[in-house]
Amino acid sequence: MGEPLRTLKPVAPARSREPEPRKSIAREYAEALIIALALAVVIRTFFVQAYKIPSGSMEPTLLVGDHILVNKLIYGLRMPDSIFGLDIPGLPLGKYLFRLEPIHRGDVVVFVFPPDPTKDFIKRVIGLPGDTIAVKNGKVWLNGAPMPDPHAHFEVPDADRSPVSPRDNFPQIGTDAGALGAVTVPPGKIFVMGDNRDRSYDSRFWGFVPQDNVEGRAMIIYWSWNTNGDGFLHIRWSRIGMIIH
Fold it and tell me: Contact 103/214 with Cβ under 8 angstroms?
């Protein structure tokens, strides 16, 4: 005898997969904008930041109106000084999480100004921890000898130097450091000066910079605007792309 016939069940027709609803164009633009802003904040905080030079303290290396890029990762990964303006307890804000390259004498660095943490300054590193620094008649002495100083710019004649001005003679007579004739850079700090030695408010006046305050090293001039109005379209074309030494 043959096997009984099997009842064939009707096969349900396959359901067509409905396309997922597309995001609105406004939502797509909003998401792209948020991602772009987040990336910009991360890059600006940890990698590269643009600055504009507002004063002549670093002339002739940097001129008023120069726009520069600063490498913020060159010395290591530094936490920002605040998170969207907030000081969050428990976070090492304003500190390095790890170090990559040491700060070198002669580097042009951007740092948080010790007397006023709301400001950023840019100067050249003159002394490292353990160095002795003195200024005699405007000239820098490093570790007991005149320092080779190719970047220094002077405007005041030697005959007009003042024995009582930190600009011209540092440290001042009558202080403990003055009695020794020099200051010693403490551990974890640096001594900085502007290249325009006669028009720079720097470590001669307000002291040392903690290395944790250093935000990065100046790399390149990407734009330069002549605030005096000279030149074609007031742009200093010859300075664009200059590497900062």
Answer: yes
Whole-structure pTM value:
0.84
Q: Domain of 60: which CATH number?
A: 2.10.109.10
CA distance 185 to 171: 12
Q: Hey, what are 117's tokens?
A: 């943490």
> What is d(CA 208, CA 202) in angstroms, rounded to the nearest whole number?
9
Is 17 contained in some domain?
no
Task: Work out how many domains the chain is built from and give that number.
Answer: 1
Angle subtended at Cα 133 by Cα 194 and Cα 77, rounded to the nearest 5 degrees: 60
* Three-state SS at 221: strand
What range defines the domain where residue 213 resides?
48-239
Residue at token pair 């028009």: 199
Q: Spell out the per-residue pLDDT of the chain, length 245, in tens.
A: 444 444 445 555 555 566 666 668 888 888 888 888 887 778 877 899 999 999 999 999 999 999 999 999 999 999 999 887 778 888 999 999 999 999 999 999 999 999 999 999 999 999 999 999 999 999 999 999 999 999 999 999 999 999 999 999 999 987 877 778 999 999 999 999 999 999 999 999 999 999 999 999 999 999 999 977 766 688 999 999 999 99
Query: Exposed, middle or buried, 77 (CB in 10 Å: 0-12/13-18/19+)?
Result: middle
Domain-located, residue 83: yes
Helix (H, G, I), strand (E, B) or coil at 32: helix
Instruction: Enumerate the active-site residues.
Output: 57, 123
3-state secondary structure of 89: coil
Token pair, residue 112, equals: 């948080």
Given the structure tokens 């570790």, which residue do they identify?
Answer: 143
